[in-house]
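Recall that a protein's primary structure is simply its ordered list of amino acids. Everything else, from secondary elements to tertiary packing, is in principle encoded there. The following example makes that idea concrete.
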Amino acid sequence: MLHPDTIPFLQDLMENNNRDWFQENKTRWEAVKATFLEFTQTCIDAMVPLDPSLGMPQANRCMYRIYRDVRFSNDKSPYKSHLSFFIPTGGVKRTGVPGYYIQFDPADKGNCFIGGGIFMPEPDALAAIRQEIYYNPEEFHAIVEDNEFKKWFPTGLWDFQKLKTAPKGYPKDWADIDFLRHKHYCTMHAIDMDLINSKNLIDYTIECFRASLPLNQFIQKAMYELL
């Protein structure tokens, strides 16, 4: 379980997002952070045997920092009011590789979720994934139509920024053109805040990650020369 002060701390931080308050409550943050790191490492230890491409990442390298980068933002709040981690292919946390992600955000139920796949792939990676789907549509169908996949992700892949037409170079009348219109090949499973304080959190999270495993393996195969 996470520290019982996890959600209260994040809610208080949301209302007092300034350095003075954070310094006064630094002990609370350290306790919350410690249990979240333990949670992260438990997830890593469970997923590495299933997905050896993850390497041997360390929890502190997968957990996102609470400090915001405000250099290019109009919002100058210095801290994030959510917790998240990303277990990446290759073991180095970076954008544009497939992996496993979780986020707890008490401010917005829609931002409490577990998922996998790849977000913001580079153009050559996105091209490779689309090509792999085009050449192997039956394999991709089997992944997204699998019962476990549909159980955890009933609406399918995340359709954020999805193209309205076929990507350049592909026939608009191809039977599975909808698969190629994605710009991110991600899964997202919304979770209730109650789960965060539950003893079932670990098992629930790992089962959800397992449901994303076939998608990640497909993406890893497509990006083999780029990873």
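The first strand starts at residue 83 and ends at 88. The chain has a mean pLDDT of 94.
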